[in-house]
Amino acid sequence: MRNKMRQLAKVTTGLLLIAALASCGGKGQPDDAGGSSSSSESSSSASSSDDKDKPDSTESTEGKPDTKAKTLTGTISDGVEPGCLMLKSDGVKYQLVGDATKKLKSGMKVEVTGKVSDNNMSTCMEGTVFEVDTVEKVS
């Protein structure tokens, strides 16, 4: 009985492995010997839709980060992750980064100047990343 259970476990494991490997494989491209016309149809329809996808010179910047210099005022708070400094200004939460933030501590009321960064990845997992250029304490 024990041998049958082991054998069943091996067969089941093998089948699962085969299924997993089969699902990982990419779809193969069919040989051109069949002369499929669908590839030429799809390329002609793709080229006509390419013109629609090209950005217009008057395209809106809505939804894109504002990379102009800004000044934010608020009270520094700690983020949920260690070492993360947050500032809430006008209802928006910012994660402050940069050399100018090294002396900032939670509870300080400050005015910071800098810009929103769309190039920084963060482990803080909250707020919009804001690269600080200058810091001034306010009362």
TrEMBL record:
Bias type Low complexity, positions: 31-48
Annotated Basic and acidic residues bias: 49-69
Keywords: Signal
Region (Disordered): 25-75
Signal peptide range in chain numbering: 1-22
Entry protein name: DUF5666 domain-containing protein
